[in-house]
Amino acid sequence: LPGKIIQSLKRVRSSNPLFCLDEIDKMTSDFRGDPAAALLEALDPEQNSHFRDHYVELPLDLSKVLFIATANDAGNIPRPLLDRMELIEISSYTENEKLHIAEEHLVAKELDKNGLTKKELSISRTALLSIIHGYTREAGVRNLERKIGAVCRSVAEKQLLGELPEGKTVKVTAKNLEEFLGKPKFRDDKADKRAQIGVVTGLAWTSVGGDTLTIEVGTMPGKGDMILTGNLGDVMKESARIALSYVRSVASRYGADKEFFSKNDIHIHIPEGSVPKDGPSAGITMATAVLSAVSKKPVRAKLAMTGELTLRGQVLPIGGLKEKLLAAARYGIQTVLVPKKNEQDVEELDAEITDGIKIIYVENMEQVVKEAIE
After folding, report:
1. pLDDT at residue 200 above 80?
2. How distant, in Å, are the alpha carbons of 40, 70, 166, 269 from that of 22?
């Protein structure tokens, strides 16, 4: 709204306050104008020393104000506005970090909110881990706090109904957690222990953390068509076409018949069809799955990969590596193929994230095939 900045400065009675513009990626323009255009001048350190507020039509010095904006998706912020910002990316919490936040802050906060004391309710570490694993799937701790609150309310209700003996501590553990929260919403699938033909595990980044992506490829007699299913976005469809083109160019090296592609259709499917999927980072995964199906050679078990593929077979870097490696560990993956250009990103990660996973850096598809296909 016009005058919002000058009103806030009047309220805090300071010329150098901190402004927090929360959820700046949710801005929309309407009949009153485009707020992003108004913010261009306010956020530009070269211009905001003589910012003119149209509400009072007076020049205003905003050069001493520190602006902080938050967003879930930087892609939704208009480019000119994003160009005036310094981007600081904050990644999701690890399970260990969530556990410590719950133990040191959330449990005490929810006990106080629901009128309980530590003598009345005790939530064990195993119970908190079970809540993190089975009842929440998120980058932050918002749902974790809600679930701890649900446990507290359940105990408070039983106290009011006289179902609990006075002076006795209710101990919540992993074994009796279902009494308070019901059946777990999420169950972690485990990686297959046997090698399979045409099935490869990929790694994906989502807004609620990392996830695994099983890519299945089947071949059948046909005319050389490619079928794509699994609710794929445009970028992912392009990755599949690149993967198929690359495999066609090198298939003869791996024992595939030259006329295979003209006499057979190839079907690429990514399960959980109701979930939209997009992005280029499944390129090498799809190429490996197609090559495995065409050459009838199995892909090694407990192996996952992520990376963008070019037509020449080069492996390009990807984002969200921390979340992807956490998902791989949760899924029981032992070996992960990562683009060589992401090596610096892996070196910055804590040992807690990479512990127990063998990370192999790859620069081209030849290295991927050597590591992945038996």
Report:
1. yes
2. 16, 5, 46, 39
